[in-house]
Amino acid sequence: MHFYRITPYSSVCCNKTKFTQSTQAILLACVLALFCIRSWAAPSEPHPPANQSTEFFLQQMANSFAELNYDLSYIQVFEGVIEPKRLSHGVLDGLEISYLSHLNGPPTEYVQRGKQVSFFEPDIEPYTLETELQQGSLFRIAKQDLAQLQLSYDFVQAGKSRVAGRPAQVIRMSPKDGDRYGYLIWLDRHTSLPLRIDTLDLQGQLVEQMMAISLRLYNEATPWIAELSSVDLPAVVTVNKSAANSVAWQLSWLPKGFQVVSSDSHSIPITGDAVDYFMASDGVAMVSVYIEPDEQPMASLTPVARKGAINLITVKHRGNKITVVGDIPTETGLKIARSVMATGNNKAKGKGNNHG
User: Fold this and answer.
1) pLDDT tens, position by position, 232-258
2) Is CATH 3.30.200.100 correct for 240-349?
3) What is d(CA 83, CA 95) in angstroms, rounded to the nearest whole number?
4) Helices (H) and strands (E) in the chain — how many of each?
């Protein structure tokens, strides 16, 4: 477990700088945890429920993901790359706390405490945002709003299996159109926590996979979660948004079930670049659209990057660069990019109006 990125936001891991008292306290707590593991170790588990409905498993998944105390170690697999990760979760005095760590490569960590998430990423000064932890399909599927998803997906039980030594219920999540990915979900039969998620393209081919390696359940929040409840975290970054009526564009097309959940004009916190921005979601897939001035010559419509299920597409349109990034098929991203239209005020004044 990596502690060096959280306190005191320095590269202690990479040199011989002495640990601060705060870091030593965290290390001590985790050493003590090894000797006190019986006090908060795995609770007795009930027998798996028999013949429950699909809705039962999905609702229990959402409840367990937010309310239980657990450590979930898993791998994310895409395009021949394997990324091992660990998610530690607990609830302490009614406060939900999550810690996500990438176990290979440069230290990358995320801490969610209530409604704030702190980001510890390579080569970037740590920062905190008022948001939720949404790193990958695991979080969005586990935190789903079933009523919303049923507008865009059909759910059906697809048998029983076994993942990470635990009995699992398989649920197929099939899109109702060709504008989004489908999913196969393996849920722990005891708790309904996700043990495996396959992201499938329109031909049913595997695009990305999350698979649990181990799942440990605890009676109460672990000492590590207790430390995270009080450790100093980076200050909250305020995104510099302009007035609501300054967004100069609108999206004239989105796949059925997608809704714009955010739109504004703001400066990107790290680079300071000014952009018009939209975020849209169907409850699982998320798409961000960035529109900024670009004076380079027109270029063809080409996806410029892909990482697993995530496509990044750049379109140059009428002197502006439009970037679409999200876990959607390439064709869907292109259709969204082409749907960007100037508002009436933007046409008249060159600086626009709110998303309509």
Assistant:
1) 999 998 765 554 446 678 999 999 999
2) yes
3) 29
4) 8, 20
